[in-house]
Design brief:
The chain contains three helices and no strands. It is mainly α. The chain has one domain. α1 runs antiparallel to α2. The two termini are about 35 Å apart. The mean pLDDT is about 90.
Amino acid sequence: MIIALLFMAILFWQTRPQYYSARWFRTRMLLYVGLTAYGVVPALHWISLNGGLESEVVQVSIFIS
């Protein structure tokens, strides 16, 4: 649900011309960082819970052999 809200916020703001001004730079970056972090942080947490990059389960799941 949160990922959908972040995605919709980005889509909504991209239709506004003022969104690309220097004034909105911080907000723009926070939205993009939030969207990215929402996927990366849980993935890193899963890797750490399963024994790190050396774990066979992790290697198979992320195609590191």
